[in-house]
Design a protein that fits this description.
The protein is an alpha/beta fold. Helix content is 36%, strand content 14%. The protein has 18 helices and 16 strands. The chain is globular and about 70 Å long. Bound molecules: 2-acetamido-2-deoxy-beta-D-glucopyranose (NAG) (4 copies). Its EC number is 3.2.1.39. One of its GO terms (cellular component) is extracellular region. Its main location: secreted.
Length: 510
Amino acid sequence: MTTLLSRSAILLPLLLLFAAFNLSSCDSFIGVNYGVIADNLPPPSATAKLLQSTAIEKVRLYGTDPAIVKALAHTDIGIVIGTANSDIPSLASEPGAAKSWIDSNVIPFYPASKIILITVGNEVLTFGDQNLQNQLLPAMQNLQDALNSASLGGKIKVSTVHAMAVLGQSEPPSSGSFKPELTTNLKGLLEFNDANASPFAINPYPYFAYTSDPRPDTLAFCLFQPNSGRVDSNTKIKYMNMFDAQVDSVRSALNSMGFKNVEIVVAETGWPYKGDTNEVGASIENAKAYNGNLIAHLRSMSGTPLMPGKPVDTYLFALYDEDLKPGTTSERSFGLFKPDLTMTYDIGLSSQNSTKSVSVQSPTSAPTAAPTTTTTPSQGFVWCVPKAGLTDAQLQGNLNYACGHGIDCGPIKAGGACFQPDTLEAHAAYAMNLYYQTAGRDPKNCDFSNTATLTSTAPSYNNCFLNTSNANVNDPRVNNSSHVSMSGVGPTRHLIDTFEWLFFIGLVYL
Ligand SMILES: *[C@@H]1O[C@H](CO)[C@@H](O)[C@H](O)[C@H]1NC(C)=O
Ligand SMILES: *[C@@H]1O[C@H](CO)[C@@H](O)[C@H](O)[C@H]1NC(C)=O
Ligand SMILES: *[C@@H]1O[C@H](CO)[C@@H](O)[C@H](O)[C@H]1NC(C)=O
Ligand SMILES: *[C@@H]1O[C@H](CO)[C@@H](O)[C@H](O)[C@H]1NC(C)=O
């Protein structure tokens, strides 16, 4: 958290401003896994339409189903295709097999279908087959060579996907390291990733961490809910959620092998909404909390403590339930959408939600087509504040949670512009409100385990809660920001809303 707190006050608004352009309808870092071990899935064309109505920008297929790859043509959705583990031996031993794999699975579809990555096998290093492990790198190399000779090297990357079980140690995150028996193979694979600028793809599942440690505070930690956090004793970084802790343990493991530049991609993560009676934690509420809060966390652009400021590319597991999968009920219950294309539960993936996550959603503002000024704050502004009578522990928990989720708490640190009054309540109110405003002004972002409430009266602790009913005429800071009013950009109403909102964030910071 130290890194989050020390971030420049100016950087975040700029970052959000930048993000607003990228997020106008999609979030480039949000992907989804499209598994097809099922007999009730909608046709690929319907799925392509569904995806286009969401903020999902990338899809990972486990295979190369041409009907799906074709259906995604001209959608601008990035596509990850994969070779089966059973393809690896021939791909490794015969360059010709790799060439014909590319010739049949890539060339006919690219670039209309935006294939971005080929994953060679799935979780091979933890599959328990030493021969296959040894063949993985040669298979990847042959596919890379085949891409290069088709002049697609660099345009389409080659990698493989690992289970978290490649780590021998993951706690605390700074001590993350790979299993010693895998490091020989991993070194070769990582040199490949490094040389070809391809990502290290891995499948962290806080859900599985929870099932092996089902304490209430572990659940809150896994679901990005208010919790007391876990301090990494080496770095003194306080982790507020399991996802960041897991991803940073991978970062540490990569760094310790000298691969600081190899990027991490989360190839799978998710939470089942249903399970057998003995499957603790598998419920709609938890699945919605995990996936919804994960999306909000990624959109906050906070990154992880070891990789601040940049959300890790994340493929949610999964688009649909796979009803033919063997095993426990939870294995068949990860789907975000039902076969009839409706949401299993709403986590804000609709493309309408993604702009709103950084824009003003004002319930009472008139939908003016061409506002004359972009600095006029909306009517009906609401603030998120702590409920009366909270304990210090509750206030501190909320403060920690909010400050651990991508907002800049520098202004409430000693010497900061909003430090006075130096009370826990005022500091918590500042952080909670900023979290609510930043995370998308959805009432669910002002819940804090039922310890927060929305109010239409500006909190009176200090002037860090702008009184928007008069800010635009009396507050010089508003006038000072108007140089970024984007005149000339010709923004749509949507964009103007976004910038209005960005001004607000900017004002709070500046
Ligand atoms: C997403 O947007 C829709 C339509 O505006 C809204 O009904 C829904 O509540 C939003 N969902 C989330 C999670 O924000
Ligand atoms: C906000 O400004 C209005 C108009 O100046 C004033 O009447 C009101 O008391 C202010 N509210 C707060 C909470 O400062
Ligand atoms: C801010 O700009 C408005 C409109 O241009 C003006 O009426 C107001 O006096 C300005 N406020 C300050 C503090 O300069
Ligand atoms: C607003 O701009 C004026 C003139 O550039 C400057 O003197 C003043 O300090 C600024 N106020 C704030 C709050 O940034």
